[in-house]
Amino acid sequence: MRKSALLSAMLALPLAALAVSAQAGNAVADVDVHASTLGAGLGVAFPVGDSVAARVGFNQFNLNFNTTTTSATSTINYTGHLKLSTIELLADWHPFNGLTHLTAGVMVNNNKLDATGVDQVTGGTVNSTVAFRKVAPYLGFGWSGRASKTGWSFKSDIGVLFQGAPNAALTSNNPTLNANLPAEQAVLNDKLKNFKYYPVVSIGIGYAF
Fold first, then answer.
1. What SS3 class is residue 162?
2. How far is Cα 5 from Cα 9, in angstroms, rounded to an integer?
3. pLDDT tens-digit series, residues 15-29
4. CA-CA distance, 90 to 155, in Å (whole number)?
5. Which of 16, 86, 113, 141 has the fewest CB atoms within 10 Å, counting from its CB?
6. Closest CA to 181 of 101, 71, 93, 95
């Protein structure tokens, strides 16, 4: 999916929802703040009738860390930075107009992990970058007030982000370390494939007006 097409969809869907809600005399938007396994975030839901809402939002989280890896040929001390950053383009359906909602959509996935390591034996450095699929499907369910009803509501979501197997890239300024990097990268990518499904748990509070 091209970025221009995705951005157009993100703009067109909420505008269409606003027009439908205004004509029906319902609340026109539901703004929420939330905390989740994707970070802290903001969201806006636009009702499309009584049982369906279009939802856009973003999540952000940053973490610095230190870790050490040991193999048969090296021991490397890493200093790294984890950045979680996603943009949501979702649709919520409330079966039987109840509080439970089923959710489907996509997320623009800018999650990334960067790390720089120093080998204790050679003194050389290793740079590591882990990237994810840029546009990832999302499926989930949760409990919340309908966006078409005005007032405060509690929000919760449980789902899965299908981000695909993360891809690790390793580089080094040391010839000795460079010779071992392909094998190290293959091992790392093999371990990372277990993270192609990212669990999402979110709680928050919103107000529809």
1. strand
2. 6
3. 554 454 444 446 789
4. 15
5. 16
6. 71
Quick check: 99 and 86 in contact, CB under 8 A?
A: no
Phi, psi of 166 (to 5 degrees): -60, 150
| Both tokens assigned to 173 | 């300024």
Residue pair 150/21 in contact (Cβ under 8 Å)? The answer is no
Nearest Cα neighbor of 109 from 179, 51, 48, 162 is 162
pLDDT reported for residue 135:
96
Tokens coding 205: 């509070």
From start to end of 27-99, where are the E strands?
A: 30-36, 39-48, 52-70, 75-93
pTM here is 0.81
Q: What single letter denotes the amino acid at residue 84?
A: L
Alpha helix locations (H) across 114-208? 175-192
How far is Cα 13 from Cα 55, in angstroms, rounded to an integer?
9
